[in-house]
Amino acid sequence: MSPTLAALVIGTAAHGPSVHVCIAQGPPSHVLRSAAAARAAAAPLMGLLDGARSVADGAKSIADGVKAAYEDDSFVPEGFVRARHILFLASEGDCEAKAAALTARIERGEIDFDDAALRFSACPTRDLHGALGTFASLSRLREGTLSGDSMPYDGKDTAAFDRLVQTAEVGRLCTVASQWGTHIVLVEARGGEGGGEGGGGEGEAQKVEASASTGTGFGGSAAVTSRAGKAKGRRGGSRRR
Fold this sequence. Notes:
This protein is an alpha+beta fold.
């Protein structure tokens, strides 16, 4: 009877090196040929598993990068802005005049934006010193870094406000009229602009008008939180002329 020999076939798999025992009867040359054939047959599968592991590792690396960017308070994605605002309700009257007077006080250094928002804003974000977080549209704040109860702006027409924050000069006070009233807005950063300087020109504080419609949706204070606001705490005021 031909001798029985065992040959070790060493290969790789997705979880690491693997060892296969090939048992065959016959002369040593026959056994070695059988082992080589088994290893050759397994090679495509091993290559496929290694490729899958490489893809998985790459996907994890990308996911880790996205997570790190999101957790970086200074990161603002393309198409997004980080901004704060103070809202005077139209229903309470003289909202434009109130906004103009408070803007002047902030620019003169009589009060900083944080305290002004806390004391005068009708928006629930007053408790966050007016922070809206990082967002693409006022109507979709919860797609950004602001979380908590629903906001009066959710799903509403906020085109005028959105145009302002996407074009205003970063760090400069601006005002915009909406269906809710008049907003004093401070854009802190805009995605895709490097150092964060936006266009807006010099001179008087910018003002954007929008046609008003009835109904405000402000029924009381809502519980809202901003990840960026919590992390950074109180920030400095606006750039003064």
